[in-house]
Amino acid sequence: MGRYFHSNSVAYASLACGFTMMNSIFSFYYVKIFLDHYHVSQAWFDVAQVIYLFWNAINDPLFAYWQDNSKLEIFRSRRLNVLYGAPLFALSFLLAWFPWGDYASHPWLAGVHLLVALSCYDAMFTFIGLASCALFAEISDKHEDRLRLTRYTQVASIFGSSSVFFSQVLCDGLNNMASFQMFVVVIALISCWAMYYTGTHVRTMYDNDVPDPVDIESPSIPFKGNDSSGKKKLDSSEDKEDSSALSSFTQFKQIAQQKNFIIFVTINFMQIFQSIYMSNFLSIFGDELLPQHVMSPFYRKFLYGSAFIIPQILVLCLSPVVGRKGYYRVILWSFYFKVFCAVVVFMAGRHQYMLLSLFMLIEASLPNTIFAFFNLPVSDIIDADQERHKRRLPLSSSVFAYNALFTKPAQSLAPMMIVAILDRNHYQEKVSGDMTTIQHQELSSAMFTVACAIPFVIGLLQILVWRPYSIRDSHITIAKHVES
């Protein structure tokens, strides 16, 4: 494999493939299955989302501090996190797709099912996700190597995100539940194997068992020489402060006070809000705003499935641009573009169906495309934190986790806000089949307004917040560390 592919990047990309397979299915279907099939009430939906909001926010720093400071290799090693966490992640993914009983007789059971499914899935999503993000930062500290990882990851994610498309083609989405349940079991098994491959093959520049630095291609850890076994020896001057000696609060204070970190988590919160809203509600909005006589069932399946594949293709196309211009400019341009698209579609009106379908595809694809490059600024923030505080090892998991502490609530706030808007505009009547013509018009109008307003408002705010970000030239840095 080494002659044609970079083996370490392939191992990391395998994790992205398995991770994306399950997450694409979960984010696309979980709201719809609980609203339209299990008929969870808005009260129980909000209760589950509020509890999930708090759990979602606190489990990131808890798991991160555990991963960064544990003395046990099974928790400190990112590779072992993935290896042993993969089966549990697959099992948590399956919880949502199998009903627990008669929800008509026991409405509360659907709410409990939603709460347990969200909490268990997010716990393993966070545990594996933190390990994945930390691996990205620790495999290499060079911009070109991180771009290569991004490209490999997106190629793998194309295969992973195609799971939604195949679920539409093979199972007709949720319309054939027996086939869909068999499909998600197969997805869980394939994803578990893909992450197992990562857990047995990936290596970082901090691993003691790396036989040859060429295998990583960027082992630029400061060192003075080799020890008796031939391994790199860390410069003792860099060992002033071991991460395990720091309290969790001290770590948080040091990281959270950095201006670039504050800027990044702010725009990331808004990006996640938009991405989650469109992932969860694309099929709900599409079924309402794009009538059956305008969009054939095949085109509708193609729209829903491609919304998870196109972002990965766009990332591959934009990677050379990011390499030349830097992620700062590309991210900023994307904010201007989403504002422009929202204005054009709103002025055209909701009856321009082809333009509206294209806009929905862009709105579903662009946030995820740009989000794929967010590992680059986080990795730069990790490098800056390590250099500023003279850390022997980077606090990779902690930086990603403190970012998640502020941004993860968007994953709950987005569906809560959209469901509240839909219920105020007669969505429950649509589900029960009791909707009048006037109520149908009100619901369609509300959905169209939301679809245009969210990218417009979020895009404007992101432009204002992102402009002061100061780490703009990491793409032209030749080497961040040199041998003494």
Largest sheet report: 2 strands, antiparallel
- The radius of gyration over CA amounts to 23 Å
How many angstroms does the end-to-end distance come to?
34 Å
Proportion of beta-strand residues: under 5%
- Mean pLDDT, to the nearest integer, reads 81
List SSEs in N-to-C order.
HHHHHHHEEHHHHHHHHHHH
The shape, in one word, is globular
Number of strands: 2
Number of helices: 18
Roughly what percent helix?
over 70%
Side-by-side strand order of the widest sheet: 1-2
Question: Structural class per helix/strand content?
Answer: mainly alpha
As residue ranges, the low-confidence spans are 209-245, 477-484
Structure notes:
It contains 18 helices and 2 strands. It is mostly helical and 484 residues long. Strands 1-2 form a two-stranded antiparallel ribbon. Helix 6 (143-171) runs antiparallel to helix 10 (297-306). The longest helix is centred in the N-terminal third of the chain and has 33 residues, at 107-139. It starts with 6 loop residues before the first helix and ends in an 18-residue tail after the last helix. Residues 209-245 and 477-484 have low confidence and may be disordered.
